[in-house]
Inverse folding.
C-alpha cells in the first residue's frame, strides 16, 4: 500500500470507528444518496418571494448598499452609453477587455467609441467587462462562471469591473441560480470557477475601517439589460 | 529536532493575560471589536427574520454530515477526481506540511501566494515552505501585515484587530523595500493602496496559490472560499497550481446546504448580508478555459478531528469559524486573542484547543469564561460552548490537575451546597459578619487566601442578609 493510501485509510477508518459504522451500511448509504439526489432546499428568505418588480428593486438596493453602481438599460445602446460614461467618471480610458460571450459581443460598442480587447487579462487592463449568467436578488449577488466567454481574471485584476446581466436572468435566491447552472452543466457538475460577486473589492482589516479596492476592482458597475 | 516540533502548540495563558491587560495599544485596538462587530451583526440578523430557522437548519446540516462523514468524504474525493483534481489525505499536521511541500516542488514553485487560511496556520505551513527555500506571500491584508511583523493572528477573521494603523505604517516603512521613506501612510486608504501595489506583483508571478476553504461540497467536489478583498480568488485563479488546504469537517452535502450556511456565515462574522466574493472552485482549468490553474489539489487535514467525532465534544465540529463568539465574549474583549496562547482564541478556542492538543496543554482556557452564555446565543451553529467548556473543567478536575487548595475549597463548597440546611445556616451566619467587616466601604480591597483574586479587583461585600432570607421575607404578605 502506498503512503497516500495508508494516509487515506487512516482517516477514513478513524472516522468510521468514531461513528461506529459497520460493514453493512445500507441505511446510512441510502440517507446520503437520497440527500445528494434530492438536494432539498432550506428556508428561502421571504424577501426573495416577491414579484418581479420588487425583486429587481431589491437586487439594485442590495448592490448599491454594498458599494456597487447599478444601471438599468432598456436597450443595448443604453447599456453601452452607460458603460462609457462610468469609465469617464472614474477617469479611465474608453477601453474594455472582455471574453467571447455572445451577448457582450452583440453590444453596439462603436456607438460610444469604446475600444475592445479580447481574452483573459494579465494585469495590464484597467477595465474588465463580464456577463453574469444569473443573479440572486436576495443579496444583489451576481453569478459569473469561468470559461472562454468570461475569463475569471477579468473580474479580479482590473480596477474597474462592469457586469452585464439580463433582466430575465435575475432570480429570487441563490438556489434558483444554482438550478440554472445545473440545467446547463448537469447535476453534480460545475465549471472550474463560479464566482458570486456582490460588490467591489473591500477590506476592513485595519481598525475595521472599510476601504474599497483592496485587491480586486475599486468600482463595480452592474448593467441590467432589458 | 523532531518534525512534530514544527507543530504550533498552545502557549501559557496567565502570563499572556497580564501582558494584554497592561498593553494600552491593545486595549485601544480592542475597542474596535466592541464598536464594530457586535452592532453590525445585530443589524444584519434583524434584517433577516428567518435567521433563527436557518440556524436550526444549519446545525442539522452539519450534524447530518458529521454522522455520515466517512461516506461524504468518499463521495467528495470521487467528485474532485472526476473534475480533474486530486484529494490528498493528511492525518497529521506533519503529513499535511509534507504533502503541500511535495506538491509545491512538483510545480517548481519559487513563490507561493496564499489566501487567508486558519488551517494553514494550524499546521505551521508558511515556516515549513520557507525553510525549504520557497517564498511565501500572504495576500490577505491582515495576514500580510502579520507576515511582515512576524506576528500571529489575534482573531480568526480579523487577524490584526490588535493593531492600530500607526503601528502598521511603521511596519510598511520597514518591510516594503524600494519605496520613498517619507511617503504618506497616515490613512487606512494609504496603507491599503500600498499593500495592493506590493502584493499585485506577487499575484502575477507566483507558481502556486494556496487557499483554505470555508466549505467543501460533496455533490460537486467544489471548495468554497469567502473573501471581501478578492485576494483568495486571485490566489486561486492566477498561478498554474491551486492547492486547497482544508480540514475534514468543512464538508457539506449539497449546493443547497452550502447556500443555507452562507446565509449564516457573513451575517454572523462581519454583519454583511454576504461577503463581496464567494467563490466555488471545482477542479483545474477545463479545455475551453482561457485562464485558471492547470492543476488542482485538495489536502484534507484530520489532525485530531476524527478523534473528536462521536465523543463529548462532537458539537464543536459544527463550527464554521465566523468569530461571533470571540466578538461577543467579555473575556476576549478584555484580553484579545494572543493572550489565549492558542491559534484559536475565545470561546470556540477554549473548547477546540484542548480537543486538538489535549487538556494538559490548555487547561486554563475552558476556565477563562464567566459563563455569561452570549457565545452560545450568537453561535450560528448553536454550539453549546459554555456546556462544552464546563465539560472540560470537569475532565480537568477528574484528572486531578487543579492545585490542592482549589480542590479542597471546591470540596468544602460542594459538601455544603448539597446540604441545604447546612448551607443556609452557614451562609446566614457568615453574610452578616462579612457585611459588618466591610461596613462603610461596601467592598473588600483585600481578602485572606484570595490575594490573587483581589489583586486586580474588589469583592463587593454582601448586604447582610442572604438571598434565601430576603426571598422568604418578600413572599410573606
Amino acid at each position: 500500500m502506498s503512503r497516500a493510501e495508508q494516509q487515506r485509510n487512516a482517516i477514513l477508518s478513524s472516522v468510521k470507528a468514531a461513528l461506529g459504522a459497520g460493514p453493512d451500511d445500507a441505511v446510512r448509504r441510502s440517507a446520503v444518496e437520497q440527500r445528494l439526489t434530492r438536494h432539498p432546499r432550506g428556508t428561502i428568505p421571504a424577501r426573495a418571494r416577491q414579484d418581479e418588480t420588487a425583486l429587481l428593486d431589491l437586487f439594485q438596493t442590495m448592490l448599491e448598499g454594498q458599494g456597487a453602481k447599478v444601471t438599468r438599460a432598456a436597450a443595448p445602446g443604453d447599456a453601452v452609453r452607460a458603460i462609457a460614461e462610468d469609465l469617464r467618471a472614474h477617469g479611465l480610458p474608453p477601453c474594455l477587455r472582455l471574453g467571447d460571450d455572445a451577448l457582450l459581443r452583440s453590444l453596439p460598442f462603436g456607438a460610444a467609441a469604446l475600444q475592445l480587447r479580447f481574452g483573459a487579462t494579465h494585469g495590464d487592463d484597467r477595465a474588465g467587462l463580464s456577463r453574469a449568467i444569473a443573479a440572486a436578488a436576495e443579496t444583489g449577488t451576481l453569478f459569473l462562471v469561468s470559461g472562454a466567454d468570461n475569463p475569471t481574471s477579468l473580474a479580479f485584476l482590473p480596477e474597474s469591473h462592469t457586469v452585464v446581466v439580463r433582466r430575465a436572468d435575475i432570480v429570487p435566491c441563490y438556489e434558483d441560480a444554482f438550478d440554472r447552472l445545473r440545467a446547463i452543466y448537469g447535476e453534480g457538475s460545475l465549471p472550474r470557477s463560479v464566482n458570486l460577486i456582490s460588490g467591489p473589492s473591500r477590506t476592513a482589516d485595519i481598525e475595521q475601517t472599510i476601504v474599497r479596492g483592496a485587491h480586486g476592482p475599486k468600482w463595480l458597475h452592474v448593467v441590467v439589460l432589458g | 529536532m523532531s518534525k512534530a516540533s514544527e507543530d504550533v502548540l498552545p502557549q501559557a495563558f496567565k502570563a499572556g493575560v497580564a501582558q494584554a491587560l497592561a498593553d494600552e495599544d491593545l486595549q485601544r485596538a480592542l475597542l474596535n471589536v466592541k464598536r464594530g462587530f457586535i452592532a453590525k451583526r445585530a443589524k444584519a440578523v434583524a434584517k433577516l427574520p428567518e435567521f433563527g430557522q436557518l440556524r436550526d437548519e444549519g446545525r442539522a446540516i452539519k450534524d447530518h454530515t458529521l454522522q455520515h462523514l466517512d461516506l461524504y468524504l468518499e463521495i467528495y474525493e470521487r467528485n474532485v477526481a472526476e473534475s480533474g483534481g486530486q484529494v490528498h489525505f493528511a492525518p497529521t499536521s506533519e503529513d499535511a506540511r509534507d504533502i503541500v511541500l511535495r506538491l509545491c516542488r512538483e510545480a517548481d514553485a519559487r513563490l507561493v501566494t496564499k489566501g487567508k487560511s486558519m488551517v494553514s496556520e494550524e499546521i505551521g505551513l508558511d515556516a515549513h515552505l520557507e525553510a525549504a527555500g520557497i517564498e511565501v506571500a500572504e495576500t490577505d491584508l491582515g495576514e500580510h501585515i502579520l507576515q511582515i511583523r512576524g506576528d500571529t493572528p489575534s482573531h480568526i477573521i480579523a487577524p490584526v484587530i490588535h493593531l492600530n494603523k500607526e503601528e502598521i505604517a511603521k511596519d510598511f516603512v520597514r518591510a516594503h523595500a524600494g519605496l520613498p521613506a517619507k511617503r504618506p501612510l497616515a490613512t487606512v486608504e494609504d496603507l491599503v493602496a500600498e499593500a495592493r501595489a506590493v502584493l499585485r506583483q506577487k499575484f502575477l508571478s507566483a507558481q502556486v496559490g494556496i487557499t483554505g476553504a470555508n466549505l467543501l461540497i460533496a455533490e460537486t467536489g467544489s471548495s468554497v472560499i469567502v473573501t471581501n478583498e478578492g485576494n483568495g480568488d486571485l490566489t486561486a485563479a492566477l498561478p498554474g497550481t491551486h492547492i486547497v488546504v482544508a480540514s475534514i469537517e468543512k464538508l457539506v452535502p449539497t449546493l443547497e446546504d452550502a447556500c443555507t450556511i452562507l446565509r449564516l456565515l457573513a451575517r454572523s462574522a462581519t454583519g454583511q448580508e454576504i461577503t463581496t466574493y464567494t467563490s466555488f472552485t471545482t477542479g483545474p482549468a477545463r479545455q475551453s478555459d482561457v485562464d485558471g490553474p492547470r492543476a488542482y489539489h485538495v489536502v484534507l487535514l484530520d489532525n485530531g478531528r476524527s478523534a473528536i467525532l462521536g465523543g463529548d465534544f462532537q458539537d464543536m465540529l459544527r463550527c464554521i469559524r465566523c468569530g461571533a463568539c470571540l466578538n461577543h465574549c467579555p473575556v476576549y474583549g478584555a484580553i484579545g486573542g494572543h493572550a489565549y496562547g492558542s491559534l484559536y482564541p475565545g470561546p470556540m478556542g477554549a473548547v477546540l484547543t484542548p480537543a486538538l492538543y489535549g487538556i494538559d496543554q490548555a487547561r486554563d482556557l475552558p476556565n477563562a469564561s464567566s459563563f455569561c452564555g452570549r457565545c452560545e446565543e450568537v453561535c450560528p451553529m448553536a454550539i453549546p460552548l459554555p456546556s462544552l467548556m464546563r465539560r472540560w473543567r470537569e475532565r480537568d478536575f477528574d484528572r486531578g490537575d487543579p492545585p490542592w487548595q482549589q480542590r479542597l475549597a471546591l470540596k468544602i463548597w460542594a459538601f455544603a451546597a448539597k446540604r441545604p440546611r447546612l448551607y443556609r445556616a452557614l451562609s446566614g451566619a457568615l453574610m452578616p459578619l462579612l457585611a459588618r467587616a466591610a461596613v462603610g466601604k461596601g467592598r473588600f480591597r483585600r481578602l485572606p487566601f484570595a490575594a490573587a483574586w483581589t489583586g486586580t479587583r474588589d469583592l463587593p461585600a454582601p448586604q447582610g442578609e442572604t438571598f434565601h432570607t430576603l426571598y422568604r421575607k418578600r413572599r410573606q404578605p
Notes: DSSP finds seven helices and twelve strands in chain A. The mean pLDDT of chain A is 96. Helices of chain A lie at 3-19, 26-38, 52-65, 76-89, 102-105, 153-156, 174-185. The longest helix of chain A spans residues 3-19.
